[in-house]
Write a structure and sequence with these properties.
CATH topology: Udp-n-acetylmuramoylalanyl-d-glutamate--2,6- Diaminopimelate Ligase, Chain: A, domain 1
Protein name: AraC family transcriptional regulator
Radius of gyration: 12 Å
Number of strands: 5
Distance between the termini: 8 Å
Helix content: 25-40%
Order of helices and strands: HEEHEHEHEH
InterPro entries: DRTGG, Ser_kin/Pase_Hpr-like_N_sf
Number of helices: 5
Domain DRTGG: 33-104
Pfam families: DRTGG
Largest sheet: 5 strands, mixed
Number of domains: 1
Structural class: alpha/beta
Strand order of the largest sheet: 1-5-4-3-2
Length: 110
């Protein structure tokens, strides 16, 4: 499944440029502790986190994360969005909580 397939779903909104929506999503990881994500997430994962500061972009870029998904419509500041655009990391927002996101991703075959 590609990032573009996810943002076509209701409740998912792309916050960054659309130049990276063709990235493949191969798995899902959910965690808010950056060091734990760095140790356990895998390349191609869609990462669900409530963290919105710029460091999430650095972690996602380092691990080659396919996209960052921000649950519950948490605001993401423009510095983070601009950095994500520079690093070609899509950030997606949704009003769903993490469980709701997992359910949709599971239904989509992940």
């Amino acid at each position: 499944m590609k990032v573009n397939d996810l943002i076509k779903k209701e409740n998912f909104k792309l916050l960054t440029d659309n130049q990276t929506i063709s990235k493949e999503i191969k798995g899902v990881y959910c965690c808010d502790l950056l060091s734990w994500v760095m140790a356990n997430a895998k390349a191609g994962d869609a990462w669900i986190t409530v963290q919105t500061h710029m460091n999430i972009v650095a972690v996602a870029s380092l691990l080659e994360i396919s996209c960052i998904i921000i649950p519950e419509s948490i605001d993401v500041d423009m510095d983070t969005i601009n950095k994500a655009n520079e690093e070609n990391i899509p950030i997606i927002s949704t009003d769903l909580n993490s469980y709701g996101i997992f359910c949709i991703l599971h239904d989509l075959g992940l």
